[in-house]
Amino acid sequence: MFAITEVTGRFPDFRVALVVATELDLSGASPADCDDLLAAAEGVAAGRLGTTPLSAMPELACWRAAYKAFGVKKTSYRSSVERLLKTVQRGERLARVNALVDIYNAVSLRHRMPVGADDLDRVTPPLAFRFARGDESFVPLGRADPEPPAPGEVVYADAEKCLCRRWNWYQDGRSAIRPTTRRAVLTIQALAPTAAALTEAAAELSGLIARHCRARCAVVIADCDLPVVPLPTP
Q1: Which of 131, 172, 222, 226 is most buried (CB neighbours < 10 A)?
Q2: Higher pLDDT, residue 189 or 140
Q3: Is there a contact between 37 and 100 (Cβ–Cβ < 8 Å)?
């Protein structure tokens, strides 16, 4: 199961498209067409941004306000989509990781929504966006020392650990997508965009994964009216 019940109680506009992908093939290097896809998304995003302050973008301002509402004051803690857009606005390329990560970064840039992924065989359902209780385990991606979340912080978690801190700020490394990943669960998160925009982003993401990773995908959307949903089965 997947739930956002706790979070929608305080943030009723929060909604998530949950995408489950199976039969993934990430064994080789990210194909050239995935690199082209991400490069095109970077170019379009940079062109649309120009010199516009990121704080002036509604799709980012809503996340800044939400972070502040649950106690995050430091400007170094920003939503994952803001970090991507800031990178391309500086004229830099995003890191190329593997086909799945490159695809979801491209979709995140195109739709200005946070997107993340976890290896479904390395998580323990149920999954939930909820408020941290202070006893969660969290080991940041690329680091060795635990950095558990503070009580009250919005986290994405499974039954055993925190999968992402500060809503969508930083991922735990234990469930990160690897070349050996065969099943993944992805989230597209929205506060400001409409339900139709989220549905469009989910359809694009699942279509690209099916095409470039030779995977089977299924999608379900959770919102304040339907805050608990089963993990979809492709």
Answers
A1: 172
A2: 189
A3: no
